[in-house]
Design brief:
Keywords: Cytochrome c-type biogenesis, Redox-active center. Its main location: other. This is Sodium:dicarboxylate symporter. It is found in: Cell envelope. The protein is of the alpha/beta class. The chain has two domains: 1-35; 49-217, Glutaredoxin, CATH 3.40.30. It has helices spanning 3-35, 40-48, 52-59, 111-127, 145-154, 168-175, 207-217; strands spanning 71-77, 82-84, 90-92, 100-106, 132-138, 162-163, 184-188, 193-199. Strands 1-8-7-4-5-6 form a six-stranded mixed sheet. Strands 2-3 form a two-stranded antiparallel ribbon. Helix 3 (52-59) runs antiparallel to helix 7.
Length: 219
């Protein structure tokens, strides 16, 4: 093979190698950004929740007794969670930020959910204020009538009805590895950062639960 022929074949090979190099570099950047939380946005979300580590440390000694199943979490911003309020108007977790939230997912067909609802109502009556709220989100498919009738039947007065008939909230939290069944309960700080998660029921009207919420509020 002549030198001229060698050069003719070498030039395309060099170009292909250069393109492959650029693609590899782009892939490496994508992987780094994905692992850090989608680039700058992920870094911002992590920074927003940095202060929540102190809250996790404060509540950890109170995760015992009736609320021992609540697991402390490495603080992170939750994805957008949307639902409707008792009047059927759009609402969201972000709209309720500014206070510590105990977010509970429930359904009328879930027996443990039905059993713990009066305790959640009692917790809201005892501790609900400008700094804390129980946000019970019903995920029954269909209309609001069944969950409304159930809450009226058991005498729930303090809890506001929040609804997600699409189960979108549950499915979003399931993808995050947080919700495996019902009831599922999440402790969220005033900035919207997850600090605790639990799958299964708890005695939310117990002294253990009140002590946990008091610690989360910083009381």
């Amino acid at each position: 093979m002549t030198d001229q022929t060698t050069r003719r074949f070498a030039r395309p090979l060099v170009a292909v190698a250069a393109v492959l190099g650029l693609l590899a570099g782009a892939a490496a950047v994508y992987v780094r950004e994905s692992r850090s939380g989608n680039g700058a946005g992920g870094e911002t979300a992590a920074a927003d929740c940095a202060d929540a580590a102190a809250t996790v440390g404060r509540i950890t000694p109170f995760l015992k007794g009736q609320v021992a199943a609540m697991a402390p979490q490495t603080p992170r911003a939750l994805p957008p969670l949307s639902f409707t309020d008792g009047d059927g108007k759009p609402s969201s977790l972000a709209a309720l930020s500014g206070k510590t939230l105990l977010v509970n997912l429930w359904a009328t067909w879930c027996v443990p959910c039905r059993e713990e609802m009066p305790a959640l109502d009692a917790l809201e009556r005892a501790m609900g204020d400008a700094r804390f709220q129980v946000v019970a989100v019903n995920i029954d498919m269909g209309s609001d009538e069944k969950p409304k009738a159930f809450l009226d039947e058991i005498g729930v007065k303090a809890l506001a009805l929040h609804r997600d008939g699409s189960m979108g909230v549950f499915n979003t939290l399931k993808k995050e590895g947080l919700a495996f069944g019902l009831p599922a309960t999440f402790l969220v700080d005033p900035k919207g950062c997850l600090i605790g998660a639990m799958n299964g029921p708890a005695a939310w009207d117990s002294e253990d639960a009140k002590a946990l919420i008091g610690a989360a509020k910083g009381a």
